[in-house]
């Protein structure tokens, strides 16, 4: 038994953050602060410490003194790398993202998805229908060909139903390129069971999408589907982009 002194213990991490959308958004906002925003917040902290008599006394007791500004030094700025697609090259935007380019043009190497299996519970059939429509709409601009899947609709959302249906479908059909499953939101147990089955027992590339990610405005769904298609292409052996870094 390990006994911890409460006054000397600090809780770390965030438990069940994915179930709290507001907290998740706040954490993401903190993570994507720009350098300028970081600087302003540090400057504000220094100013608050300097203007607080209690903080100043505490620093003086420790023999510490804080500068009025953060330390500045000359940094080495690396040149921007050129991103290569199949038909053209480009320089990334200032925020170093190039999602828009790789979803509107053909990647370096594309794998056609002709033999694949789609599994979803009956309650989410409308999401499956929207997903298929969005995949057909997005794949052309990305140079991908996505054929009609073999569809298995589940009567319930139990782990056993997913596992049994996957095993039966993969065992009765020719070699499948891909298994795509739509699962209810917050069901990590189903996700884990599907991945274990596809990694260990019946090896096949798999893509699992939660219902929550397919809900909302059509533009959001389209963005999710574009990212899913990029993941699928990579999992099947495709190549999205490259850079000109010499050996």
Task: Outline the secondary-structure elements.
Layout: H1 21-31, H2 35-51, H3 53-62, E1 83-84, E2 89-90, H4 99-102, E3 116-121, H5 125-139, E4 150-154, H6 159-172, E5 178-183, H7 188-201, E6 206-210, H8 218-235, E7 242-243
Parallel strand pairs: 3-4, 3-5, 5-6
Antiparallel strand pairs: 1-2, 1-7
Helix pairs in contact: 5-8, 6-7
Can you give me a brief rundown of this structure?
The chain has 247 residues and is an alpha/beta fold. It has 8 helices and 7 strands.
How does this model look, in words?
This is PIWL2 protein. The chain has 8 helices and 7 strands. The strands form 2 sheets. Strands 4-3-5-6 form a 4-stranded parallel sheet, sandwiched between helices. Strands 2-1-7 form a 3-stranded antiparallel sheet, with no helix packed on it. α5 links the parallel β3 and β4 (150-154). α5 crosses α8 (218-235) and α6 (159-172) packs parallel to α7 (188-201). The model has no long low-confidence stretch (mean pLDDT 88). The protein has 2 domains: 21-70, no CATH class; 99-243, Rossmann fold, CATH 3.40.50. It has 247 residues and is of the alpha/beta class.
Based on secondary structure, the structural category is alpha/beta
Quaternary organisation of the protein chains: single chain
Query: How do the strands line up in the largest sheet?
Result: 4-3-5-6
Query: How many domains is the backbone divided into?
Result: 2
Span between termini: 54 Å
The name of the CATH topology of the largest domain is Rossmann fold
- Shape verdict: extended
Percent helix range: 40-55%
- Strand portion: 5-15%
CATH first level of the largest domain: Alpha Beta
Supply Rg: 25 Å
Q: Indicate the mean pLDDT.
A: 88
Largest sheet, if any?
A: 4 strands, parallel
CATH superfamily of the largest domain: Response regulator
Give the low-confidence spans: none
Q: From the coordinates shown, what is the CATH architecture of the largest domain? A: 3-Layer(aba) Sandwich
- How many DSSP E strands? 7
What is the number of helices?
Answer: 8
Order of helices and strands: HHHEEHEHEHEHEHE
